[in-house]
Every structure is written in structure tokens, then in C-alpha cells.
Amino acid sequence: MEKPTLQGEMIRLRPVRADDADAMWDMVHDPEGMRLTGTTATFTREQIAEWCATISTHDNRIDLAVTSSGSDEYRGEIVLNDIDPVVRSANLRLVMRPAYRGRGYGTEAIQLVLGLAFDGLGLHRVGLDVLSINSRAIAIYENIGFRHEGRLRDAYRDGDRWCDSILMGLLEDEFRAAQLD
Fold first, then answer.
1. pLDDT band at 179 (very low <50, low <70, confident <90, very high)
2. How far is the C-alpha of 131 from the C-alpha of 151, rounded, in Å?
3. What percentage of residues in the chain have a pLDDT greater than 70?
4. Cβ contacts of 39 within 8 Å, gap of 6 or more
5. pTM (predicted TM-score)
6. Class of domain 6-179
7. pLDDT, tens digit, 9 for 90 and up, residues 166-175
């Protein structure tokens, strides 16, 4: 599958490359980011380097680096994975490096990827799950038009406590209706 480059007002999305490994290494070792995404796996630097060097060759997924329009620096990533052309669905995942959170990059990245999903790939549904402790992400997804579809109780650890996973989805007609507003 051809991996696209997408241009927005503030950001540019491009395929993840081998030279993104150092920035990704820093991102996967951010305690707050790991907490808010429910990441419990640990990675070696070699695993991250291998991932960045080869991810663009994987089928049924599109991993894009979030960069700004004036810089090619890896600021985070947005992923459309589990792409199923028969069911016409996919899963969405976004994570930003700490210095770039709260600036609107993630919102614009999601909107660009949803355009690709529905207009470029012809998908019918994009789903995601977000931890109940990640109120900022939940608000972003709701503002874009994602709807709550369910809850997996105590699905993730939050230190010594548990937290729920909120299942959300956006359908093609909901996306199109939001574009008219």
C-alpha cells in the first residue's frame, strides 16, 4: 500500500522513517504518555530503530509522522491500523511528544487522516479506544465527531489502580455531515 504524505494548515504528515528512531525512542519513554495510552511494553533502542526503518513496508496500516509545515522534525505519530478493505473499517491511534501536546497538532492530524480514511481509502468506519483517564483526548475525539460506543471496565492499569477503556467510533456519514457544518 502506498504511504501518503498529507498537508494541513499547521502540520504535514509523512511516512515514519528510520531517522525518526531517536525521537520515537524519547516518546516511548515519556511516563505521562505511557500512562495516558496504557502502554506497558518496554522497547529496546534496537527495536525502535527496526520499527521505524520497516514500518512503511507493513500492509493494512499507515503510520505517519506528525511534523510542522516548516520543519521535518518528528513531533508525534498518527496511525491508521487494522485496515480491513472488506468491512471498510480501521482503527485510529495518535500519540504526541510531550513538547507538542496541546497545540492543536493532534486535532489537525486526526482530521487529515479521517479525510484519507473516508475519501482516499473508502472506509465506512474508523474506531479507537481511549483510556478513561485521558480526558483531553476524549474531548478532542468528541469534538471531531466520534461517538461513545462502549466501555471496557478496568481494562488498563493506572499505577496501583485500574481504569476503563472507552470505545469510540466515527461513521462515514457522520464524518461527511461534520464537514458540512
1. confident
2. 10
3. 99
4. 28, 33
5. 0.94
6. alpha beta
7. 999 999 999 9
b/e 127-155 (16+ beta carbons within 10 angstroms → b)? bbbbbbebeebbebbeebbbeeeeeeeeb
The candidate with the shortest Cα–Cα distance to 19, out of 69, 72, 59, is: 72
Averaged over 29-51, what is the pLDDT? 91
Q: Are 21 and 83 in contact (CB under 8 A)?
A: no
Sequence-ordered list of residues with C-beta below 8 angstroms from that of 29, at least 6 positions apart, any chain? none
Could you tell me the three cell numbers for 175? 464524518
Q: What pLDDT is stored for residue 3 in this prediction?
A: 85
Secondary structure (3-state) at 170: strand
Cα–Cα distance for residue pair 27/10, rounded to 1 Å:
21
Task: Enumerate the domain spans of the chain.
Answer: 6-179
* Residues paired with 86 in a beta bridge: none
Specify whether the CB–CB gap between 144 and 110 falls below 8 A.
yes
Query: Residues for the chain: how many in total?
Result: 181
Q: What grid cell was written down for 68?
A: 510542522
